[in-house]
Amino acid sequence: MAACTDPLSEARALEKKGDLEGAVALYREILANSPKDLEALSGLAVDLLQLKRYDEALSLQETIVALDPKDALTRVELAFNYLNHQTQPAKAVKYLAEAVALQPSAKNLSFLAQAQTAAGDAPKAEENLRRAIATDKTYGYAYSLLLPMLEAQGRVSEAAGLREAAAAAGARVESAKSD
Q1: DSSP assignment string, the chain
Q2: Is the pLDDT of residue 3 over 60?
Q3: C-alpha–C-alpha distance, residues 170 and 167, integer Å
């Protein structure tokens, strides 16, 4: 790299080459001098997630959401870190609720419902899945989460009607998976 290239650009270039460890080192250098640099914090957090270093990414993600009250994406990523790697679904619910407040998309509502289910709040999860479907009738993931929930509760005819509504809307319904 040329000496005049800035460290953020160098880190991104290393990421493109697949050298995540090198990028991590550069981001850490940047943050040693500028601990609130959101671009460096975000880059480092994403790289650590890709390296499956979830515990290290967690504090960075928390810092980012504290510094940037409008960052819905990092709230979603932080929530899934709590949900899938920290076994703290209640914290996942908190951050996904914040993401929904910022961007009330069918996707974010479905993710919130997923966390609410893991936290043991099926009624709220159902409510948010219905909101997701009302927001975007074609978003199949919401149906994929709601259908087994209804079936597990013995609400088979309601599930059948929902399945028909999904088909009529052209929603692709698959078996639900974590994100």
Answers
A1: --TTS-HHHHHHHHHHHT-HHHHHHHHHHHHHH-TT-HHHHHHHHHHHHHTT-HHHHHHHHHHHHHH-TT-HHHHHHHHHHHHHTS--HHHHHHHHHHHHHH---HHHHHHHHHHHHHTT-HHHHHHHHHHHHHH-TT-HHHHHHHHHHHHHTT-HHHHHHHHHHHHHHT---------
A2: no
A3: 5
Contact residues for 104 (Cβ-Cβ < 8 A; gap 6+)? 131, 135
Q: Note the pLDDT of residue 2.
A: 46
Q: Which segment of 36-45, 63-72, 77-86, 169-178 scores lowest on mean pLDDT?
A: 169-178
pLDDT tens, 97-150?
999 999 999 999 999 999 999 999 999 999 999 999 999 999 999 999 999 999
Task: Output the pLDDT for position 5.
Answer: 78
- Distance in angstroms (rounded) separating the CA atoms of residues 42 and 49: 11
Reading phi first (left if > 0) and then psi (alpha if -120 to 50, else beta), residue 177 is in beta
Report yes or no: 112 and 89 within 8 Å, Cβ to Cβ: no
Place 179 in a pLDDT band, splitting at 50, 70 and 90: very low
Amino acid symbol at 40: A
